[in-house]
Structure formats: structure tokens, C-alpha cells
Amino acid sequence: MKAGIEKATAVLVGKALWECTRAADLASFALGERREVPCSRGGTRTVGEFALHVQCAWRITREDQVLVGSHDLYYPADYGDEGREIPPDFDWDRDPNRRDKLLRLLFEDGKRLFVVEAVEVGTAGSLHIALGDGFCLDVFPDDSLNDERWRLFRPGFVEPHFVVTAHGLET
User: Fold this and answer.
1) CA 76 to CA 144: how far, in whole Å?
2) Are 132 and 114 spatial neighbours (Cβ–Cβ below 8 Å)?
3) Tens digits of residue pLDDT in 71-115
4) Paired strand residues for 8
5) How far apart are CA 168 and CA 58, in angstroms?
6) Which domain holds residue 49?
7) For 6-27, how does the pLDDT look when each residue is reduced to its tens digit (9 = 90+)?
């Protein structure tokens, strides 16, 4: 499995990571050149040359500090400030949440990018993506379920996706 992942992710070295959006709790990282692709409802949307869809735990760090992580999604945007509590009616998918806020600040609303310097493949489909200047994106499956962990593909192209699951690789 490790050799297959190394081969598939080698294309990311030298590419810019410039955005992270989400669909529910799935994180979608945009890498490479910005491209316009048709939308199903008409018009176009901007996507990366590559998309990394992550459905397991992940984090972006700089040296020894976690700047944003997948679990930040489940906290209000201002959580962590002195004296804040999670309101009982907080809905992470509807209300402003900490993850979306921290990603927007990190990527400076799409103006800041991070160039992939190296991709290291670990156990169980984990990734350590070095982004330079001490920044890293870590993807690490953190449960024993048989679900999809992450996938890498080229948006707008009709071709197989590279998918990492608990059972191994799918293309």
C-alpha cells in the first residue's frame, strides 16, 4: 500500500496548496494550478489542478503548534476565547465554526499558498505533507472502521480517483 500511495502523491511535490473547503465534515484541499470547471447548475467554479478529499482526522501545523485541525469543526468560531462555552443549540454545519474561521485566516481568503516540498507516507494510509517554512499538513486515519480515509483526483476529469480505504487502495 505504501508504494502505491507514494507513487500517487508524488505529483503533489512542487504544487501549491491554496484552499480548504468542506462538504459537511469532508475536507477538500485544493492543490496546483487554479482551473475553471463547469458547475452542474450552470456557470463555472474554481478548483485546483488536484483535490485531496479527506474523511479522517487531519491537521495543519507549524513546528510544534497545531494551527487548525479537523476536530475544530465541532466548536463555535469564537470557542477557545476566555470564558467561552459551546451553546446548547450550536450546529457546526449551520453556524460559524472554529475550523472554517481558522482556515479562512490561514489561507487569507485564498491569497496565501503553501508549496508542497515533500510527501511522506506513514502507516495505515497516513500522510505527512511538508509545506515549507515549518508548515505541514498531516492526514491520519484514526478509527478502525472500514470507511474511505482520503482520495486524490483531478477535478473536472472523468478518470479514476486514487482512494485510500481501511481495506487498501482503490482506483
Assistant:
1) 28
2) yes
3) 999 999 988 767 678 999 999 999 999 999 999 999 998 899 999
4) none
5) 19
6) 2-170
7) 999 999 999 999 999 999 999 9
Report CA-CA distances (Å) from 121 to 6, 95, 118, 137, 140.
Answer: 6, 35, 10, 12, 10
Query: Which H or E run contains 102?
Result: helix 98-106
CA 8 vs. chain centroid, Å, equals 16
Q: How far is CA 168 from CA 1, 43, 79, in A?
A: 6, 37, 37
How many alpha carbons lie under 13 Å from residue 111 in its C-beta half-sphere? 3
Distance CA 14, CA 103 (A): 21
Task: Cell numbers for 63, please give them.
Answer: 513546528
First to last CA, the chain: 12
pTM: 0.94
Count of domains forming the chain: 1
3-state DSSP call for residue 135?
A: strand
Helix (H, G, I), strand (E, B) or coil at 106: helix
